[in-house]
């Protein structure tokens, strides 16, 4: 079950973050509870002023006993890992990698991912071998996205700009029929979401955030 048209109030940020989890719980008939895995994905270009917003969402999910699935890239993925490290909860996270080896991760993400693994975080390794062709990389990344969805009970997505990989993952989640919450973080992503909604004929819960906003400047 998907819900469309939800907005975030300007003066109730903390409650709205809480309501995300409540809404997922409603959509998924109890998805947000002990031991469930929630995928959090998003654009590699998501600005760093969204980092604290991602952290608030993760904090709420962890408080409900959930685990967090991530893709191990930069942007939104890196905000997920840094939040888990900051909270001392790496063991509650899983990174789904496209790569079969550590140096396949983006250079700027390796330090945090290495620390994440040392502190109990799990890495589900992919199939891409060293010195891959472009075709092998693309296939590996798409396969990673599918594995993340297959192992998630719900999906939270941060759209920013074209976000092609994020859109692909959302479509995979639609096929699986799991609850989805989409944050449209700029005008381009809002239009992409509307196009997707028309294409699939499904309703997805959408929350709009200003392109350059900080979490306390959310708008409906």
TrEMBL record:
Name of the protein in question: Smf/DprA SLOG domain-containing protein
Domain of life: Bacteria
Organism of this sequence: Candidatus Saganbacteria bacterium CG08_land_8_20_14_0_20_45_16
GO biological process, one term: DNA-mediated transformation
The Smf/DprA SLOG domain, residue ranges: 22-184
Coiled coil: none
